[in-house]
Each structure stands twice: as C-alpha cells, then as structure tokens.
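Because discrete structure vocabularies remain unfamiliar, it helps to consider an illustrative case, giving the amino acid sequence and backbone structure tokens:
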Amino acid sequence: MARHFTGDDVRAAYERIKGRVRRTPLEDSLYLGDDDHRYRFKLESQQLGRSCKIRGAFNTLMQLTPTQLAHGVGTVSTGNHAIAMAYAARELGIDNCVVIVPVGTARSKLDRIRFYGARVMTMGGTYNEALTLGLNYLDCNELFYVDPGEFDPRISAGLGTVGFEIALQHPKVDTIVCPAGRGGLLTGVAVGAKALRPDMRIVGVQTAACPSLIQSFEDGLCYRNYPINGDTICEAVVGGAGQLAFEMLPGLVDQWLVVEEAQIRDALRFMAVEEQTLVEGASAMVVAAVREYPDEVGGNDVALVISGGNVDGRVLERALSEGED
C-alpha cells in the first residue's frame, strides 16, 4: 500500500514551490463550447520544461535529506518527468542527476534533458524494460529514485498544485478534465482542486491504446505493467497503473472516458491549427474527450488540463498531413 496524501499536503506543496514554478494561464478556448458551455485550457504546456511535471519534481527534491542529495538522484522516464527532474536538480544545485530512458524516446525530449545537465542512459526497448534495468542501476549506485508518482505522494502532491491553482484562478470552473496514464497527475489534481472546492467534478481520460487504470478498477487489480494496443502518440501515459492512483482515485473521479488514437490525433491537429497551441498527445486526449463526448464530460465551465507541450516534430507533422487528406 502506498502512503496517501491530502489537500493539506497539496497546500504545503503550493507554498513550497510557488517561487520556483510558473502560475500558468487558464485561457478560454476560442472554438470549443457554446452559449451554455465554456471551456478553458490550463496551459501547463507553458510551464518550465513545458510540462506540469516540474511541480512534482521540485516538491520532491526540496524535501530530500542532505545525504540523499549528496549521493544524487535518478529516474526512469519517457520524457517529461525526466526533463522536470533535470531542470529542478540543476536549479537546486544537485550535481549527480541520471535519467534512464527506453530506446525510441523522442529526440526533442532527450535534447531538453541534456540541456538541463542530466546524464542520459538508454536501457531497454520499452518503458517497462527500462524501468526494470534502470531501478537496478540506480540502486547499485545509491542514487535516490524519483518515481513519477506511482508510490511517492510528494510527486502527486506537487502535481496537485495544478488543480489547486485552477480552483484559485476561476471560481466558476465546475469540472476539470485531466489526462491519466499511471495516474499521478490526475490523483493530485483531484485532491488539490477538492481541497478548495469539494464539489469540483473530475473527469479522467485515457487512451484506448492503454486504458490501464480503467481496466485495473474494473478487474480490482493494479496492473502496474499493461500492454499497449497498436501505435500511440501518447507515449507519456502508457505502460501501466500507479499504485497510489489505484488506491485513491475511486473516491475522487466522477467520470472516466476512453478516446481513440484517431480522435487524439485529430484533437492535436485542432489545437495546432485552430487554437494555435502546440500540445503533446497526452494533452490532446482531454481535448478529444470534450470534442467527442461533451455530454459525458458535462459541466458548464470546464477546465482542460493541458499537461505538456513537448510534442515530437514527427508526430505533429503526421497529424497535420492527415488533416490534408
């Protein structure tokens, strides 16, 4: 069982990191909605490192002991979590920072990780293989493993400042739509938003290529490793369910939705061409959910968590070219 966290932990995280991260905009959509429904984008794509992950990284690293910091830190990630940790480690003066990635990780993300000063190591052909090999390496070298929120509540509490911030920014928002992979962000957002607005409605979205959390809840088992069905542009949210999310989310999420990859690519193209905003696949999932299932999303004033903007150029090019067919 993972150690749970509360709204008080999110409040503490908000105070701890607010001088280190940006208060990202909550901007109206130009093309979604109608007279009775308003949609707003919480643009974590404009956050430091271009994703919400910096919030969890700072909240965790700022609570490590001097001994842990002296040994150094490491993680296993397909991109955004690694970028965030590399940036936070640099800003906090942590010299030894190692990031382990699987083969095929987007070059744009690897370049950003290296730019912030972390040492990148490639292990395994999939995230799950990289995780197994990487954890062994980090343990053997006595590096503190910064997990992406699967077990460590400090990560999710930091990510929860996104939901906390939404509730602070606009009192009319009654629903938050958030992407989910292992569930660290969604868990944090739900706890953070409900700390200020207990009646806030929370909608979780997963890709049909890897609905690990939804299947875990249906079967009553936490599938920490879950197969990917076909190609996906949502590499940041595949691979399995997080234990912390599995334990906490059933009482926090009001609606689950699954979107198809074709719908996600169409939403990514919509955001780039119509809304003039670059988002990555995981963020496009929530846009797809609103476009395809507005009645299920519900709400009159809805915030969409645009969790990141580190889109692979090849993915964007393909999505744009498909729109020309």
Residues 127-140 form the longest helix (14 residues). The mean pLDDT is 93.
